[in-house]
Amino acid sequence: MAPRPQRLTLTHRAWALARPITTPHGVATTTDVIMAEISDGDAGGRGECVPIRRYGETTETVMAALVAMKDAISSGLSRDTLQQALPPGAARNALDCAFWHLDANRLYRNAAEMAGFGAVKPVMTAFTLAFDTPEKMAEQANANSARPIFRLELGGAGDIERVRAVRQVAPASRIIVDANESWNAAELDAFMPVLLDLRVELVEQPLPADADDALTRLEYPIPVCADESCRSRADLDRLDGKYAVVNIKLDKVGGLTEALALAEEAKRRGLQIMVGGMIGTSLGVAPALIVAQQAKIVDLEGPLHLAFDRGSALRYEGSLIHPPNPNLWGGPG
Length: 333
Fold this sequence. Notes:
Layout: E1 7-23, E2 26-39, E3 44-49, H1 59-67, H2 70-74, H3 79-85, H4 90-107, H5 111-114, E4 123-124, E5 127-129, H6 134-143, E6 149-153, H7 159-169, E7 174-178, H8 185-197, E8 200-204, E9 224-226, E10 245-249, H9 250-253, H10 256-268, E11 272-276, H11 282-292, E12 297-298, E13 316-317, E14 320-321
Parallel strand pairs: 5-6, 6-7, 7-8, 8-9, 9-10, 10-11, 11-12
Antiparallel strand pairs: 1-2, 2-3, 4-14, 13-14
Helix pairs in contact: 1-4, 6-7, 10-11
């Protein structure tokens, strides 16, 4: 029997943030989210993506890439053939996750079971403190004092003062930091002993991705995590001797399929896994929870920064993320 024709529907929406977020690039009040829905008339699936500016993506470019796939999808594109049809990135993530959801509904199975993980278990997420002055970041930490893990967005002069200010108001909290490619090798060498004294547990992407060869010179006392330096399995060879952890983001790697493959290969090479994400709705986080089942660090609190979330949203109990409702994503709902 010939496969049923598939139809792709796309939706773009700017979701309001609960409060403005300062970044090294400016102040954001919304986040642009694109949803892809694939239906064959009997079953449907959906996935979400957020364009990543670091890789030259915009809402317009991602939407154009998705629109260009409509004919292929109607002609029978599958999750397997998608991996070669689009490069890593937000557009492929939205379609890949929609295909996972569609396949789960077609087979009356849960996506986590299809991926070999059984039921998704709750995971603890870090809570991100947006880049700001040391005083403002300490205020953010104070306002979220019950959260056990803070992830500090860094990226400019005064970064050590930012970490010190947060540590002073959060003496018992675990702290990881993301330098966003903003340091040089001399700064990293100088900062590491201070960060160790401040009990920082992880340093994410301290050097620019094209200048991280300097990481091979020393063994650092705090694990260093690759984010921008690792977009797919093809990047793993160049990480040898530089990083101890890899941050896997579905929008960066291009979907759950590549995320699972990247996690498996990274672990085989002795790397630990961090799972991160963009600020989006629960629909974008739900697939990432499957990868998070094997992660050392989870950073999937994006929906907590929204003014409101989708229906059937994930349940956050403090920083504990509970498994998704099937009506959101991942299984027959």
